[in-house]
Amino acid sequence: MPGPLLERLEERQLLSGSVSAWTHGQDLVSAQTESAATTGPQMRVGAAVAVGLWLLADLVIPTAIYPFRGGQFASYRMITGNGPSHLADLGWKSLGVLELSVLPSIEEDAWVPTVREADALLFWGGDPLFLANWMRRSGLADLLPTLRPEAVYVGVSAGSIAATSTFVETYTEQPRGTDGPLKSEDIVFTTPEGDLHRLLVTGEGAGLVDFAVIPHFEHPDHTDASLANAEKWAAHIPAPTYAIDDNSAIKVVDGTVEVVSEGQWKLFTP
Questions:
Q1: Distance CA 51, CA 46 (A)
Q2: Which end of the chain is less congested by CB atoms within 10 angstroms, N or C?
Q3: What is the C-alpha to C-alpha distance for residues 267 and 224, in angstroms, rounded to an integer?
Q4: Strands, E assignment, 205-262
Q5: Do residues 244 and 231 lie in contact, with contact meaning Cβ atoms separated by under 8 Å?
């Protein structure tokens, strides 16, 4: 990764995160610094990203945040750079918004060329099941593998989880929507405050990477992702699973996975 870009990331304190990302042509690092909990899934949103070159034209995808109360305001703050997330505030030469839920209602000629021309697609955090569903329903999931080799997929939290083939996420209640999960099951995590009851929801992602991610490893606000609980969680995931903390990131180039970390991470294998 070029020196000036790494320096900019360090200035923003963004070389951290609970994220994975994918590219078949260029280096990529994805990162997250802050998160918040809410009802529904464990909300995992925050700052984001870096790629191995200064990108010119980028599209940010906020779709995953909308199942949460206040998601509309959080999306605006992220896009305008007025919130804790710096996903849209890293010095991009140009930045557009791609809202997946509107794409089925408009002609492909209105948005497909823009996606093909973009240097990077920046997928923000929120609900990975909701995001993955809209990636398929919009046609974007089928379009992604056909993009030019230089294009970069950048995922933050739910944006990274949704890039996997099969993912498993914790929810506080049964997900709602027209496209349900592949399956859901009750799970009880052990925490210092007592038992934590969650739904473990399995969903179908975009299939860009063949591993899974458990974000916020050992984070005090995400006790379901402690070492013991992450191991219990990963046992339900039929793929190698990276548990990474908020001082870690994952880089994928041409299928080669590298963890970039100044904190804690662990790989669980099925």
A1: 17
A2: C
A3: 16
A4: 212-214, 241-244, 248-253, 256-261
A5: no
Residue 20 pLDDT > 70, yes or no? Answer: no
250 contacts 20 by C-beta, under 8 angstroms: yes
Beta bridge partners of 7: none
50-51 and 94-97 strand pairing: unpaired
Beta bridge partners of 183: 202
Asked if residues 20 and 242 have their Cβ atoms less than 8 Å apart, the reply is yes
Rounded Cα distance, 259 and 250, in Å:
4
d(CA 26, CA 50): 11
User: What is 3-167+204-268's CATH superfamily?
Assistant: Class I glutamine amidotransferase (GATase) domain (3.40.50.880)
Domain residue ranges in the chain:
3-167+204-268
Mean pLDDT along residues 75-81: 91
Residue 101 scores a pLDDT above 60 = yes
Q: What is the DSSP letter of 69?
A: T
Which amino acid belongs to residue 171? Answer: Y
SS (H, E, C) 161-193: HCCECEEEEEECCCCCCCCCCCEEEEEEEEECC
**Predicted local confidence at residue 245, as pLDDT:** 86
What pTM does this model have?
Answer: 0.80
- List the structure tokens of 95: 């930045």
pLDDT at 114 over 70: yes
